Structures are given as C-alpha cells and as structure tokens.
Amino acid sequence: MKKGTINAARRKWRRVHEDGTVAEVSPMAGADTWEACARQRGQSVADSIYRPFTFLSDAQAAADRLALTICPHSCGERCGTWDPVERRTKSRIR
Questions:
Q1: CA distances from 39 to 19, 36, 58 (A)
Q2: Among 28, 33, 66, 68, which one has the highest count of C-beta atoms within 10 angstroms of its own C-beta?
C-alpha cells in the first residue's frame, strides 16, 4: 500500500435504515476484527455487540439485526446501503 492511502476495508462502515436507525461496524483497535453497533440517528449512545467478528459481512449482519431490535421494520428499498465513513482530512478546530 502506498503511503497516504487508506485501506478501505479497515474503516468504519455505516448503513442508515428507513426509520432513521443507524447500523455501524468499526474495526477493533489492535486486532483484525470488527465490532457492531446500532443507534437512533442523532444519538451518540449506541447498543453494541462486544463480540469480535472476523468478517466484515458477519459484523454488518449483526449490526443490522441490532438495528431491527431498536426499531422493528422490514428492510426494503428505503434502507440504505453499507457505505464507508469518510475520515476527516482537516481538523474542525480553526
């Protein structure tokens, strides 16, 4: 990997469900595993699954299941896709 490039697979991933529930998957520090969580949009507190997942797809499925426990619904066309969360390149502090 070139200097300055980001490994897309090792960043946070997010999916917004149609009811505003956000499912997120993050790499666990110091390990090649993933952590899953879900929360209502606009809230910082999340329900998390503190179990390491080896595969990104398994962690995403767990985060989706957790999102469904927060607000039950049938995932359809109005639920978003899993997208990588962009990292800030500039500080918010000016």
A1: 11, 11, 18
A2: 66
Task: State pLDDT tens for residues 3-12.
Answer: 444 454 578 9
Q: Are 18 and 73 in contact (CB under 8 A)?
A: yes
Burial class (CB in 10 A: 0-12, 13-18, 19+), 25: buried
48: in domain: yes
Parallel/antiparallel/unpaired status of strands 83-84 and 21-27: unpaired
State pLDDT tens for residues 70-80: 888 888 778 89
CB 49 within 8 A of CB 74: no
Does 88 reside within a domain? no
In this structure, is residue 19 part of a structural domain?
A: yes
